[in-house]
Write a structure and sequence with these properties.
Pfam families: HemY_N, TPR_8. Among the domains are: 235-314; 319-409, Serine Threonine Protein Phosphatase 5, Tetratricopeptide repeat (Alpha Horseshoe), CATH 1.25.40.10. Helix content is 77%, strand content 2%. The protein has 20 helices and 2 strands. Helix 9 packs antiparallel against helix 10 (227-247), helix 17 (334-346) runs parallel beside helix 19 (367-380) and helix 19 (367-380) runs antiparallel to helix 20.
Length: 410
């Protein structure tokens, strides 16, 4: 429409100019005379005809070159228009593919995304979304192919492609494959928050607490977790490292890990118990007896008290004396009395052990106190009383199990 208006406007101007020239020359009796000679050729005409002819010729030549220029540009315009149409279709296909993926139409989404990916302004999104759709329908080979193409056709998108691949490996519980991918990404960008977050998840699944400990500084710097969450993670990591060392039966490794634990984590309730329990489990309880006693004296903890009673001391009498020292502050503590009964029994002081255990049961009946007292009575030869204690322990244990089941089901 624009070109038509331009053409008609130019034609109108040319006619108007020609008419103006004709009117101007018409005022004279002699319209003028023009003679043009070229070799043996000559052109003879009036000045009026020459003027009008020049105007018309100029218009025709001008329109000819305009048309010629338009025809030369036509292939490019056709190509550009075709690309624009394909681009618009690819954008529509992307939206449709995302909608189908959200609705669970995986195969349909995959087909439409791949069909229009090559003409899209964001082919990476097409291939990554298609990869997710392929995995969702179990087409693992197709998934890997789309990820490969995405990496090839989107230079500089290694992190985006790798993260998508790692997330899909994790969703399939392919932790080793996810770890390989994440390690490569970590080498490219050690401070990338999303990479660190997925590394943390992967190491946790693999139980590699030492690896998590190494990336905690980077996680803290990149603000992957809040400060409080970082401290909780550190506590979890050192707990895991202590348990791993205990499982390996290496008390020197347990001690090495404990020395590396920051003081603020050592003060978290439950953390010291993991260390002391690990040392006792590997048969090194005597090495931490004094340290455990100091910890109980400084910060009274019944869990640590029970662990103290489990220590196979090199000097049971000294161990008993240490525990009896706490009676002044906690004379009616059932747990302390039970521990005293246990240590007294180990020291062969059966009468004292019986008194402590009976008082503990009177204050707070417990399965372990009944069992210890039953074992003590058996050694004394009082089988009837021992059987009664075993029965009480069994009844008490059954009641605890019933309450736990009720809490779970209720």
């Amino acid at each position: 429409m624009k070109n038509i208006i331009f053409f008609l406007g130019s034609l109108f101007i040319a006619i108007a100019v020609a008419f103006g020239i004709h009117s101007w020359f018409s005022r004279y009796d002699d319209p003028g005379y023009v003679l043009i000679g070229i070799g043996h050729w000559s052109l003879e005409t009036s000045l009026l005809v020459l003027g009008v002819t020049l105007v018309i010729a100029f218009f025709l030549f001008y329109m000819f070159f305009r048309l010629l220029g338009w025809m030369l540009r036509l292939p490019g315009k056709v190509k550009s228009h075709g690309q624009s149409v394909k681009y618009n279709r690819s954008q529509e296909a992307l939206i449709a593919g995302l909608v189908d993926s959200a609705e669970g139409n995986w195969e349909k989404a995959e087909k439409i995304l791949i069909k229009h990916a090559s003409h899209s302004g964001a082919p990476l999104i097409h291939y990554l979304t298609a990869a997710r759709a392929a995995q969702s329908r179990g087409a693992i080979e197709k998934r890997d192919e789309y990820l490969r193409i995405a990496a090839e056709r989107s230079p500089g998108a290694d992190i985006a492609v790798g993260l998508t691949q790692a997330e899909m490996h994790l969703s399939e519980q392919q932790f080793d494959q996810a770890l390989d991918t994440l390690k490569k990404l970590h080498s490219i960008n050690p401070g990338h928050a999303s990479v660190l977050k997925l590394l943390h998840q992967t190491y946790r699944q693999l139980g590699d607490w030492d690896a998590i400990r190494k990336i905690i500084p980077s996680m803290n710097k990149s603000k992957v977790l809040m400060e409080a969450e970082i401290k909780l993670l550190e506590a979890e990591v050192f707990s895991g490292l202590l348990r791993q060392a205990a499982e390996n039966g290496d008390y020197t490794k347990i001690q090495e890990v404990w020395q590396e634990v920051p003081d603020y984590i050592k003060r978290i309730p439950g953390i010291p118990a993991i260390y002391f329990a690990g040392m006792i489990d590997v048969g090194a309880g005597a090495k931490i007896e004094d340290e455990l006693a100091r910890s109980i004296s400084e910060d009274w903890d019944e869990t640590l008290l029970v662990l103290f009673g489990s220590v196979q001391s090199n000097d049971p009498q000294r161990q008993l004396k240490t525990a009896e020292g706490w009676l002044k502050a906690y004379p009616d503590n059932a747990v302390l009395l039970r521990v005293l009964g246990k240590i007294s029994k180990r020291c062969k002081e059966t009468d004292k052990a019986g008194q402590y255990l009976e008082k503990s049961i009177a204050l707070e009946p417990s399965v372990s106190a009944y069992q210890l007292l039953a074992d003590l009575l058996t050694e004394k030869g009082d089988k009837n009383s021992a059987l009664e204690c075993y029965k009480c322990a069994l009844d008490l244990a059954s009641g605890e199990v019933a309450r736990q089941v009720e809490n779970i089901t209720g």
